[in-house]
Specification:
Two copies of one chain form a homodimer. By secondary structure, chain A is of the alpha/beta class. Chain A is built from nine helices and 14 strands. Chains A and B meet through strand 9, strand 12, helix 4, helix 5 and helix 6 of A and strand 9, strand 12, helix 4, helix 5 and helix 6 of B.
Chain lengths: 296, 296
Protein backbone atom coordinates (compact mmCIF):
# COMPACT_ATOMS: atom_id res chain seq x y z
CA UNK A 1 0.00 0.00 0.00
CA UNK A 2 1.17 3.53 -0.68
CA UNK A 3 2.23 5.82 2.13
CA UNK A 4 -0.53 8.18 3.18
CA UNK A 5 0.96 10.20 6.03
CA UNK A 6 4.31 11.03 7.62
CA UNK A 7 4.02 10.62 11.41
CA UNK A 8 6.68 11.99 13.79
CA UNK A 9 7.32 11.78 17.51
CA UNK A 10 9.72 14.72 17.81
CA UNK A 11 11.12 15.02 21.29
CA UNK A 12 13.80 16.84 23.22
CA UNK A 13 16.63 14.51 22.23
CA UNK A 14 15.44 12.57 19.19
CA UNK A 15 13.05 12.53 16.21
CA UNK A 16 11.40 9.23 15.30
CA UNK A 17 9.50 9.23 12.00
CA UNK A 18 7.24 6.70 10.27
CA UNK A 19 5.36 6.60 7.01
CA UNK A 20 1.94 5.01 7.48
CA UNK A 21 -0.41 3.48 4.95
CA UNK A 22 -4.16 4.09 4.65
CA UNK A 23 -4.81 1.72 7.57
CA UNK A 24 -2.24 3.33 9.85
CA UNK A 25 0.28 0.50 9.40
CA UNK A 26 3.99 1.31 9.29
CA UNK A 27 5.64 1.30 5.86
CA UNK A 28 9.03 2.73 6.84
CA UNK A 29 10.72 4.09 9.94
CA UNK A 30 13.75 6.33 10.52
CA UNK A 31 15.38 8.00 13.54
CA UNK A 32 17.09 11.38 13.35
CA UNK A 33 19.41 13.03 15.88
CA UNK A 34 17.40 16.19 15.65
CA UNK A 35 16.35 16.74 19.26
CA UNK A 36 14.33 19.90 19.84
CA UNK A 37 16.79 21.01 22.53
CA UNK A 38 19.53 21.36 19.90
CA UNK A 39 17.54 23.14 17.16
CA UNK A 40 18.42 26.67 16.12
CA UNK A 41 15.52 28.99 15.16
CA UNK A 42 14.18 27.98 11.75
CA UNK A 43 16.20 24.78 11.69
CA UNK A 44 13.23 22.45 12.34
CA UNK A 45 11.35 23.49 9.19
CA UNK A 46 14.46 23.46 7.00
CA UNK A 47 15.77 20.07 8.07
CA UNK A 48 12.32 18.48 8.07
CA UNK A 49 11.97 19.33 4.38
CA UNK A 50 15.58 18.70 3.42
CA UNK A 51 16.34 15.55 5.42
CA UNK A 52 13.34 13.90 7.05
CA UNK A 53 10.94 13.89 4.09
CA UNK A 54 13.49 12.64 1.53
CA UNK A 55 14.84 9.92 3.87
CA UNK A 56 11.38 8.38 4.04
CA UNK A 57 10.32 9.18 0.46
CA UNK A 58 7.63 11.34 2.02
CA UNK A 59 7.88 14.49 -0.11
CA UNK A 60 4.44 16.01 -0.46
CA UNK A 61 2.74 13.77 2.13
CA UNK A 62 0.69 15.31 4.89
CA UNK A 63 2.58 15.18 8.19
CA UNK A 64 1.41 14.87 11.78
CA UNK A 65 3.86 15.63 14.60
CA UNK A 66 3.75 15.34 18.39
CA UNK A 67 6.14 16.08 21.24
CA UNK A 68 8.36 18.99 22.22
CA UNK A 69 8.42 20.18 18.60
CA UNK A 70 5.16 21.89 19.61
CA UNK A 71 6.77 23.77 22.51
CA UNK A 72 8.05 27.32 22.45
CA UNK A 73 11.54 26.04 21.61
CA UNK A 74 10.21 23.86 18.76
CA UNK A 75 8.89 24.58 15.27
CA UNK A 76 5.57 26.20 16.12
CA UNK A 77 3.86 26.50 19.48
CA UNK A 78 0.86 24.20 19.82
CA UNK A 79 -0.99 25.62 22.84
CA UNK A 80 -1.82 23.20 25.65
CA UNK A 81 -5.34 21.75 25.83
CA UNK A 82 -6.82 21.69 29.33
CA UNK A 83 -8.00 18.45 30.91
CA UNK A 84 -10.31 16.66 30.81
CA UNK A 85 -9.49 15.99 27.16
CA UNK A 86 -9.71 13.11 24.71
CA UNK A 87 -9.01 12.41 21.07
CA UNK A 88 -11.68 14.77 19.71
CA UNK A 89 -10.39 17.64 21.85
CA UNK A 90 -6.81 17.23 20.64
CA UNK A 91 -7.65 16.49 17.02
CA UNK A 92 -9.63 19.72 16.94
CA UNK A 93 -6.69 21.76 18.18
CA UNK A 94 -3.86 20.83 15.84
CA UNK A 95 -1.46 23.63 14.95
CA UNK A 96 -0.47 24.14 11.32
CA UNK A 97 3.31 24.62 11.32
CA UNK A 98 3.66 24.69 7.53
CA UNK A 99 1.69 23.64 4.49
CA UNK A 100 0.53 20.08 5.25
CA UNK A 101 2.39 19.88 8.56
CA UNK A 102 0.29 19.74 11.72
CA UNK A 103 1.47 19.51 15.36
CA UNK A 104 -0.52 17.97 18.21
CA UNK A 105 -1.01 20.07 21.34
CA UNK A 106 0.15 18.99 24.78
CA UNK A 107 -2.11 18.61 27.80
CA UNK A 108 -2.39 20.78 30.87
CA UNK A 109 -4.16 20.26 34.18
CA UNK A 110 -4.09 21.56 37.73
CA UNK A 111 -0.95 20.25 39.41
CA UNK A 112 0.47 20.33 42.90
CA UNK A 113 0.56 23.49 44.99
CA UNK A 114 -1.53 25.51 42.56
CA UNK A 115 0.98 25.21 39.71
CA UNK A 116 -0.14 23.69 36.43
CA UNK A 117 1.07 20.30 35.30
CA UNK A 118 1.88 19.71 31.64
CA UNK A 119 2.81 16.98 29.16
CA UNK A 120 3.91 16.99 25.52
CA UNK A 121 4.17 13.76 23.59
CA UNK A 122 2.83 11.35 26.20
CA UNK A 123 -0.75 12.49 25.41
CA UNK A 124 -0.40 11.09 21.89
CA UNK A 125 0.79 7.73 23.24
CA UNK A 126 -2.13 7.69 25.68
CA UNK A 127 -4.65 8.46 22.91
CA UNK A 128 -3.04 5.76 20.79
CA UNK A 129 -3.25 3.29 23.68
CA UNK A 130 -6.95 4.05 24.01
CA UNK A 131 -7.35 3.62 20.24
CA UNK A 132 -5.57 0.25 20.44
CA UNK A 133 -7.77 -0.90 23.35
CA UNK A 134 -11.38 0.13 22.76
CA UNK A 135 -12.44 -1.65 25.98
CA UNK A 136 -10.38 0.87 27.97
CA UNK A 137 -12.43 3.75 26.63
CA UNK A 138 -15.06 3.10 29.30
CA UNK A 139 -14.53 3.46 33.04
CA UNK A 140 -11.59 4.70 35.06
CA UNK A 141 -8.01 3.64 34.40
CA UNK A 142 -4.73 4.51 36.08
CA UNK A 143 -1.80 4.72 33.67
CA UNK A 144 1.87 5.44 34.29
CA UNK A 145 4.31 6.64 31.64
CA UNK A 146 7.74 6.21 33.28
CA UNK A 147 10.73 8.27 32.20
CA UNK A 148 12.89 11.27 33.07
CA UNK A 149 9.67 12.99 34.03
CA UNK A 150 7.23 10.17 34.76
CA UNK A 151 3.52 10.83 34.29
CA UNK A 152 0.74 9.28 36.37
CA UNK A 153 -2.48 9.67 34.47
CA UNK A 154 -6.11 9.22 35.46
CA UNK A 155 -8.31 8.34 32.48
CA UNK A 156 -12.10 8.28 32.62
CA UNK A 157 -14.36 7.27 29.74
CA UNK A 158 -11.60 7.80 27.21
CA UNK A 159 -10.47 11.22 28.36
CA UNK A 160 -7.47 12.27 30.45
CA UNK A 161 -8.96 13.70 33.64
CA UNK A 162 -5.81 14.61 35.52
CA UNK A 163 -2.14 13.72 35.71
CA UNK A 164 0.90 14.29 37.88
CA UNK A 165 4.52 14.51 36.78
CA UNK A 166 7.27 13.02 38.97
CA UNK A 167 10.93 13.84 38.31
CA UNK A 168 11.98 10.33 39.27
CA UNK A 169 14.18 9.60 36.27
CA UNK A 170 15.90 12.94 36.60
CA UNK A 171 16.52 12.38 40.33
CA UNK A 172 18.05 8.99 39.49
CA UNK A 173 20.31 10.51 36.85
CA UNK A 174 21.40 13.51 38.92
CA UNK A 175 22.00 11.59 42.16
CA UNK A 176 23.76 8.79 40.31
CA UNK A 177 26.15 11.24 38.67
CA UNK A 178 26.74 14.03 41.17
CA UNK A 179 25.94 12.98 44.75
CA UNK A 180 27.40 10.85 47.52
CA UNK A 181 25.52 8.01 45.77
CA UNK A 182 27.33 8.46 42.44
CA UNK A 183 28.36 5.22 40.75
CA UNK A 184 29.22 3.88 37.34
CA UNK A 185 27.86 0.42 38.12
CA UNK A 186 24.84 -0.81 36.13
CA UNK A 187 21.41 -0.94 37.78
CA UNK A 188 20.93 -4.64 37.14
CA UNK A 189 20.84 -6.15 40.63
CA UNK A 190 17.27 -7.35 41.26
CA UNK A 191 17.82 -8.10 44.95
CA UNK A 192 19.15 -4.59 45.61
CA UNK A 193 16.33 -3.09 43.51
CA UNK A 194 13.73 -4.88 45.64
CA UNK A 195 15.49 -3.80 48.83
CA UNK A 196 15.26 -0.24 47.57
CA UNK A 197 11.55 -0.60 46.81
CA UNK A 198 11.01 -1.89 50.35
CA UNK A 199 13.08 0.94 51.84
CA UNK A 200 10.82 3.49 50.13
CA UNK A 201 8.21 2.92 52.83
CA UNK A 202 5.19 5.13 52.39
CA UNK A 203 6.97 7.33 49.86
CA UNK A 204 7.70 9.93 52.54
CA UNK A 205 10.96 11.32 53.97
CA UNK A 206 12.87 10.63 50.76
CA UNK A 207 15.94 12.63 51.83
CA UNK A 208 16.27 10.35 54.87
CA UNK A 209 15.59 7.13 52.99
CA UNK A 210 18.22 8.11 50.42
CA UNK A 211 20.83 8.09 53.17
CA UNK A 212 20.15 4.37 53.65
CA UNK A 213 21.62 3.85 50.16
CA UNK A 214 24.90 5.07 51.61
CA UNK A 215 24.70 3.62 55.12
CA UNK A 216 23.93 0.09 53.91
CA UNK A 217 27.28 0.17 52.14
CA UNK A 218 29.22 1.93 54.91
CA UNK A 219 27.67 -0.48 57.40
CA UNK A 220 29.00 -3.42 55.41
CA UNK A 221 25.57 -4.81 54.54
CA UNK A 222 25.84 -4.31 50.79
CA UNK A 223 28.38 -3.90 48.05
CA UNK A 224 28.82 -0.43 46.60
CA UNK A 225 28.19 -1.82 43.10
CA UNK A 226 24.56 -2.47 44.09
CA UNK A 227 23.92 1.21 44.89
CA UNK A 228 22.42 2.17 41.48
CA UNK A 229 19.95 -0.73 41.66
CA UNK A 230 19.00 0.13 45.24
CA UNK A 231 18.65 3.81 44.33
CA UNK A 232 16.44 2.93 41.35
CA UNK A 233 14.21 0.79 43.56
CA UNK A 234 14.04 3.44 46.26
CA UNK A 235 13.07 6.23 43.85
CA UNK A 236 10.54 4.16 41.88
CA UNK A 237 9.18 2.70 45.12
CA UNK A 238 8.74 6.17 46.61
CA UNK A 239 6.95 7.29 43.45
CA UNK A 240 4.48 4.43 43.28
CA UNK A 241 3.83 4.57 47.03
CA UNK A 242 2.75 8.20 47.03
CA UNK A 243 2.04 9.75 43.62
CA UNK A 244 -1.12 7.79 42.65
CA UNK A 245 -2.61 8.76 46.02
CA UNK A 246 -2.18 12.43 45.05
CA UNK A 247 -4.51 11.70 42.12
CA UNK A 248 -7.07 10.60 44.68
CA UNK A 249 -6.84 7.14 43.27
CA UNK A 250 -6.48 3.84 45.05
CA UNK A 251 -3.86 1.75 43.29
CA UNK A 252 -4.81 -1.85 42.69
CA UNK A 253 -4.06 -1.91 38.96
CA UNK A 254 -1.89 0.24 36.71
CA UNK A 255 -1.18 0.24 32.99
CA UNK A 256 2.46 0.98 32.18
CA UNK A 257 3.06 2.65 28.84
CA UNK A 258 6.46 3.54 27.43
CA UNK A 259 9.92 2.06 27.11
CA UNK A 260 9.53 -1.70 27.73
CA UNK A 261 12.70 -2.09 29.84
CA UNK A 262 11.79 0.82 32.10
CA UNK A 263 8.18 -0.34 32.28
CA UNK A 264 9.46 -3.74 33.41
CA UNK A 265 11.27 -2.11 36.35
CA UNK A 266 8.08 -0.30 37.34
CA UNK A 267 6.07 -3.50 36.98
CA UNK A 268 8.47 -5.31 39.29
CA UNK A 269 8.14 -2.56 41.90
CA UNK A 270 4.35 -2.37 41.56
CA UNK A 271 3.91 -6.13 41.92
CA UNK A 272 6.23 -6.11 44.96
CA UNK A 273 3.75 -3.69 46.50
CA UNK A 274 0.72 -5.77 45.53
CA UNK A 275 -0.36 -3.72 42.52
CA UNK A 276 -1.30 -5.48 39.28
CA UNK A 277 0.70 -4.05 36.39
CA UNK A 278 0.32 -4.47 32.63
CA UNK A 279 3.01 -3.28 30.22
CA UNK A 280 2.23 -1.64 26.88
CA UNK A 281 4.76 -0.55 24.28
CA UNK A 282 5.06 3.21 23.94
CA UNK A 283 6.25 3.25 20.35
CA UNK A 284 3.30 1.37 18.86
CA UNK A 285 1.00 3.53 20.98
CA UNK A 286 2.63 6.68 19.59
CA UNK A 287 2.07 5.46 16.04
CA UNK A 288 -1.55 4.63 16.82
CA UNK A 289 -2.05 8.03 18.42
CA UNK A 290 -0.55 9.96 15.53
CA UNK A 291 -2.67 7.94 13.10
CA UNK A 292 -5.82 8.58 15.16
CA UNK A 293 -5.10 12.33 15.24
CA UNK A 294 -4.50 12.36 11.48
CA UNK A 295 -7.43 10.13 10.54
CA UNK A 296 -10.00 11.96 12.61
CA UNK B 1 44.42 32.43 82.18
CA UNK B 2 46.80 30.02 80.50
CA UNK B 3 45.64 27.68 77.79
CA UNK B 4 44.89 24.20 79.10
CA UNK B 5 43.72 22.27 76.05
CA UNK B 6 43.69 22.49 72.27
CA UNK B 7 40.17 21.66 71.02
CA UNK B 8 39.47 20.90 67.35
CA UNK B 9 36.36 20.31 65.25
CA UNK B 10 38.04 18.66 62.27
CA UNK B 11 35.56 18.00 59.48
CA UNK B 12 35.45 16.97 55.85
CA UNK B 13 36.17 20.44 54.46
CA UNK B 14 37.64 22.47 57.31
CA UNK B 15 39.47 22.37 60.65
CA UNK B 16 38.41 24.80 63.36
CA UNK B 17 40.68 24.95 66.41
CA UNK B 18 40.48 26.72 69.78
CA UNK B 19 42.68 26.94 72.80
CA UNK B 20 40.60 26.78 75.98
CA UNK B 21 41.46 27.87 79.53
CA UNK B 22 40.85 25.88 82.71
CA UNK B 23 37.18 26.85 82.68
CA UNK B 24 36.65 25.87 79.05
CA UNK B 25 36.60 29.49 77.85
CA UNK B 26 38.12 30.34 74.47
CA UNK B 27 41.55 31.98 74.48
CA UNK B 28 42.30 31.83 70.76
CA UNK B 29 40.71 30.49 67.60
CA UNK B 30 42.00 29.62 64.14
CA UNK B 31 40.58 27.99 61.00
CA UNK B 32 42.65 25.80 58.69
CA UNK B 33 41.86 24.62 55.17
CA UNK B 34 42.76 21.12 56.15
CA UNK B 35 39.56 19.19 55.37
CA UNK B 36 39.78 15.47 56.00
CA UNK B 37 38.65 14.77 52.43
CA UNK B 38 41.89 16.31 51.11
CA UNK B 39 44.38 14.71 53.52
CA UNK B 40 47.00 12.28 52.24
CA UNK B 41 47.92 9.36 54.52
CA UNK B 42 50.06 10.65 57.42
CA UNK B 43 49.38 14.27 56.55
CA UNK B 44 46.97 14.87 59.47
CA UNK B 45 49.57 14.09 62.16
CA UNK B 46 52.33 15.99 60.41
CA UNK B 47 50.41 19.19 59.74
CA UNK B 48 48.73 19.16 63.14
CA UNK B 49 52.14 19.31 64.80
CA UNK B 50 53.79 21.59 62.23
CA UNK B 51 50.96 24.08 61.58
CA UNK B 52 48.01 23.85 63.92
CA UNK B 53 49.84 23.69 67.26
CA UNK B 54 52.28 26.56 66.49
CA UNK B 55 49.54 28.79 65.05
CA UNK B 56 47.74 28.68 68.39
CA UNK B 57 50.82 28.56 70.62
CA UNK B 58 49.61 25.13 71.67
CA UNK B 59 52.81 23.10 71.51
CA UNK B 60 52.74 20.46 74.23
CA UNK B 61 49.10 21.01 75.22
CA UNK B 62 46.74 18.04 75.39
CA UNK B 63 44.40 18.01 72.40
CA UNK B 64 40.82 16.81 71.96
CA UNK B 65 39.44 16.37 68.44
CA UNK B 66 36.03 15.51 67.01
CA UNK B 67 34.57 15.06 63.52
CA UNK B 68 35.58 13.17 60.40
CA UNK B 69 39.21 13.17 61.58
CA UNK B 70 38.10 10.05 63.50
CA UNK B 71 36.84 8.28 60.36
CA UNK B 72 38.74 5.73 58.31
CA UNK B 73 39.97 8.50 56.01
CA UNK B 74 41.12 10.64 58.97
CA UNK B 75 44.03 10.45 61.40
CA UNK B 76 43.01 7.43 63.47
CA UNK B 77 39.73 5.55 63.44
CA UNK B 78 37.61 6.22 66.50
CA UNK B 79 35.03 3.41 66.43
CA UNK B 80 31.37 4.39 66.60
CA UNK B 81 29.57 4.16 69.94
CA UNK B 82 26.09 2.64 69.75
CA UNK B 83 23.05 4.53 70.97
CA UNK B 84 21.73 5.17 73.49
CA UNK B 85 24.82 7.11 74.51
CA UNK B 86 25.68 10.20 76.53
CA UNK B 87 28.74 12.11 77.68
CA UNK B 88 30.08 9.35 79.91
CA UNK B 89 29.82 6.79 77.11
CA UNK B 90 31.73 8.93 74.64
CA UNK B 91 34.31 10.24 77.12
CA UNK B 92 35.11 6.64 78.01
CA UNK B 93 35.76 5.73 74.38
CA UNK B 94 38.23 8.37 73.18
CA UNK B 95 40.86 7.13 70.73
CA UNK B 96 44.49 8.11 71.29
CA UNK B 97 45.81 9.23 67.88
CA UNK B 98 49.22 10.36 69.18
CA UNK B 99 50.81 11.32 72.46
CA UNK B 100 48.35 13.73 74.12
CA UNK B 101 45.96 13.75 71.14
CA UNK B 102 42.55 12.11 71.63
CA UNK B 103 39.69 11.80 69.14
CA UNK B 104 36.00 11.54 70.05
CA UNK B 105 34.02 8.64 68.57
CA UNK B 106 30.96 9.09 66.40
CA UNK B 107 27.52 7.68 67.17
CA UNK B 108 25.69 4.82 65.51
CA UNK B 109 22.10 3.63 65.77
CA UNK B 110 19.61 1.55 63.84
CA UNK B 111 18.53 3.50 60.77
CA UNK B 112 15.99 3.08 58.02
CA UNK B 113 15.54 -0.23 56.19
CA UNK B 114 17.83 -2.16 58.50
CA UNK B 115 20.89 -0.09 57.62
CA UNK B 116 22.78 1.68 60.41
CA UNK B 117 22.71 5.44 60.77
CA UNK B 118 25.86 7.28 61.80
CA UNK B 119 27.14 10.72 62.78
CA UNK B 120 30.60 12.17 63.39
CA UNK B 121 31.02 15.63 64.87
CA UNK B 122 27.39 16.44 65.55
CA UNK B 123 27.47 14.22 68.67
CA UNK B 124 30.03 16.56 70.24
CA UNK B 125 27.83 19.59 69.56
CA UNK B 126 24.86 17.75 71.05
CA UNK B 127 26.80 16.82 74.20
CA UNK B 128 27.99 20.40 74.44
CA UNK B 129 24.42 21.68 74.06
CA UNK B 130 23.36 19.40 76.92
CA UNK B 131 26.31 20.66 78.98
CA UNK B 132 25.26 24.26 78.27
CA UNK B 133 21.64 23.56 79.25
CA UNK B 134 21.50 21.36 82.34
CA UNK B 135 17.68 21.57 82.38
CA UNK B 136 17.62 19.68 79.04
CA UNK B 137 19.35 16.70 80.60
CA UNK B 138 16.00 15.48 81.92
CA UNK B 139 13.10 14.32 79.78
CA UNK B 140 12.74 13.88 76.03
CA UNK B 141 13.93 16.45 73.51
CA UNK B 142 13.82 16.58 69.72
CA UNK B 143 16.84 18.25 68.17
CA UNK B 144 17.70 18.96 64.54
CA UNK B 145 21.19 19.66 63.24
CA UNK B 146 20.63 20.98 59.69
CA UNK B 147 23.30 20.69 57.03
CA UNK B 148 24.43 18.74 53.98
CA UNK B 149 23.35 15.65 55.89
CA UNK B 150 20.83 16.91 58.44
CA UNK B 151 20.40 14.95 61.66
CA UNK B 152 17.15 14.60 63.59
CA UNK B 153 18.00 13.46 67.08
CA UNK B 154 15.88 12.08 69.91
CA UNK B 155 17.43 12.77 73.31
CA UNK B 156 16.18 11.24 76.55
CA UNK B 157 17.57 12.00 80.00
CA UNK B 158 20.79 13.37 78.55
CA UNK B 159 21.55 10.53 76.14
CA UNK B 160 21.05 10.26 72.39
CA UNK B 161 18.44 7.51 71.94
CA UNK B 162 18.14 7.50 68.16
CA UNK B 163 18.70 9.72 65.15
CA UNK B 164 17.96 9.87 61.43
CA UNK B 165 20.07 11.46 58.73
CA UNK B 166 18.39 13.30 55.84
CA UNK B 167 20.39 14.25 52.73
CA UNK B 168 18.44 17.48 52.38
CA UNK B 169 21.37 19.83 51.96
CA UNK B 170 22.98 17.53 49.41
CA UNK B 171 19.71 17.27 47.45
CA UNK B 172 19.49 21.06 47.40
CA UNK B 173 23.08 21.40 46.16
CA UNK B 174 22.85 18.67 43.53
CA UNK B 175 19.44 19.70 42.15
CA UNK B 176 20.41 23.36 42.19
CA UNK B 177 23.54 22.66 40.16
CA UNK B 178 22.70 19.78 37.82
CA UNK B 179 18.93 19.41 37.27
CA UNK B 180 16.13 21.10 35.40
CA UNK B 181 15.91 23.27 38.55
CA UNK B 182 19.50 24.53 38.28
CA UNK B 183 19.93 28.22 39.01
CA UNK B 184 22.59 30.67 40.09
CA UNK B 185 20.10 32.91 41.86
CA UNK B 186 20.40 33.30 45.66
CA UNK B 187 17.89 31.55 47.94
CA UNK B 188 16.79 34.76 49.65
CA UNK B 189 13.13 35.07 48.64
CA UNK B 190 11.03 34.49 51.77
CA UNK B 191 7.72 34.37 49.92
CA UNK B 192 8.98 31.68 47.54
CA UNK B 193 10.56 29.79 50.44
CA UNK B 194 7.23 29.70 52.27
CA UNK B 195 5.43 28.61 49.10
CA UNK B 196 7.92 25.75 48.87
CA UNK B 197 7.31 24.75 52.50
CA UNK B 198 3.57 24.70 51.80
CA UNK B 199 4.07 22.66 48.60
CA UNK B 200 5.91 19.98 50.58
CA UNK B 201 2.58 18.69 51.84
CA UNK B 202 2.97 15.64 54.03
CA UNK B 203 6.57 15.15 52.96
CA UNK B 204 5.54 12.45 50.49
CA UNK B 205 5.85 12.19 46.70
CA UNK B 206 8.90 14.44 46.61
CA UNK B 207 9.71 13.68 42.95
CA UNK B 208 6.26 14.96 42.00
CA UNK B 209 6.35 17.99 44.28
CA UNK B 210 9.75 18.93 42.83
CA UNK B 211 8.16 19.28 39.41
CA UNK B 212 6.02 22.10 40.82
CA UNK B 213 9.27 24.09 41.17
CA UNK B 214 9.47 23.99 37.39
CA UNK B 215 5.81 24.22 36.47
CA UNK B 216 5.17 27.30 38.63
CA UNK B 217 7.73 29.10 36.44
CA UNK B 218 6.63 27.61 33.12
CA UNK B 219 3.03 28.39 34.06
CA UNK B 220 3.94 32.04 34.56
CA UNK B 221 3.11 32.07 38.26
CA UNK B 222 6.61 32.76 39.49
CA UNK B 223 9.90 34.21 38.37
CA UNK B 224 12.72 31.75 37.65
CA UNK B 225 14.97 33.65 40.07
CA UNK B 226 12.78 32.46 42.94
CA UNK B 227 13.40 28.78 42.16
CA UNK B 228 16.28 28.26 44.64
CA UNK B 229 14.21 29.72 47.49
CA UNK B 230 11.19 27.60 46.55
CA UNK B 231 13.37 24.51 46.23
CA UNK B 232 14.93 25.18 49.64
CA UNK B 233 11.48 25.52 51.21
CA UNK B 234 10.20 22.42 49.47
CA UNK B 235 13.11 20.24 50.59
CA UNK B 236 13.21 21.54 54.16
CA UNK B 237 9.42 21.36 54.34
CA UNK B 238 9.43 17.75 53.15
CA UNK B 239 12.07 16.92 55.74
CA UNK B 240 10.31 18.45 58.72
CA UNK B 241 6.96 17.03 57.65
CA UNK B 242 8.11 13.42 57.59
CA UNK B 243 11.48 12.73 59.24
CA UNK B 244 10.58 13.40 62.91
CA UNK B 245 7.64 11.02 62.50
CA UNK B 246 10.10 8.27 61.55
CA UNK B 247 11.64 8.76 64.99
CA UNK B 248 8.21 7.97 66.41
CA UNK B 249 8.08 11.45 67.76
CA UNK B 250 5.29 13.98 67.60
CA UNK B 251 6.72 17.36 66.67
CA UNK B 252 5.47 20.28 68.71
CA UNK B 253 8.89 21.65 69.65
CA UNK B 254 12.34 21.27 68.15
CA UNK B 255 15.76 22.59 69.13
CA UNK B 256 17.86 23.66 66.14
CA UNK B 257 21.60 23.39 66.59
CA UNK B 258 24.19 24.38 64.01
CA UNK B 259 24.89 27.19 61.57
CA UNK B 260 22.69 30.11 62.68
CA UNK B 261 21.65 31.18 59.15
CA UNK B 262 20.63 27.66 58.17
CA UNK B 263 18.91 27.12 61.53
CA UNK B 264 16.93 30.31 60.87
CA UNK B 265 15.60 28.81 57.60
CA UNK B 266 14.55 25.66 59.44
CA UNK B 267 12.95 27.72 62.20
CA UNK B 268 10.92 29.64 59.64
CA UNK B 269 9.71 26.40 58.06
CA UNK B 270 8.95 24.78 61.42
CA UNK B 271 6.98 27.78 62.65
CA UNK B 272 5.05 27.89 59.37
CA UNK B 273 3.98 24.34 60.19
CA UNK B 274 3.05 25.16 63.78
CA UNK B 275 6.17 23.75 65.45
CA UNK B 276 7.96 25.78 68.12
CA UNK B 277 11.63 26.16 67.23
CA UNK B 278 14.58 27.40 69.28
CA UNK B 279 17.93 28.15 67.66
CA UNK B 280 21.26 27.31 69.32
CA UNK B 281 24.69 28.13 67.96
CA UNK B 282 26.62 25.08 66.81
CA UNK B 283 30.09 26.50 67.29
CA UNK B 284 29.72 27.35 70.98
CA UNK B 285 28.11 23.94 71.49
CA UNK B 286 31.08 22.25 69.81
CA UNK B 287 33.47 24.07 72.12
CA UNK B 288 31.38 23.11 75.16
CA UNK B 289 31.26 19.50 73.99
CA UNK B 290 35.00 19.24 73.40
CA UNK B 291 35.63 20.79 76.79
CA UNK B 292 33.20 18.39 78.46
CA UNK B 293 34.88 15.40 76.81
CA UNK B 294 38.30 16.67 77.87
CA UNK B 295 37.33 17.65 81.39
CA UNK B 296 35.54 14.43 82.21
Amino acid sequence: MAAEVLACDWGTTNLRAWTLDGQGAVIAQRDFRLGVAKLAPGEAARRFQAEVRPALGAEGLPAILCGMIGSNIGWATAAYVDCPAGLADLAGRLTVAADGVRIAPGLRCEGIAGAPDVMRGEETQILGWLAQHPERRRGRHLLCHPGTHAKWVLIEDGRVVRFITAMTGELFAVLGAHSLLASDAPADDDVAFEAGVAAAGAGDALAARLFSARSRVVGGQADAASTPSYLSGLLIGAEIAAVPALLGEGTSHAALLGDPALCARYARALRQRGVEAEIFDGETAAIAGLWALYAR
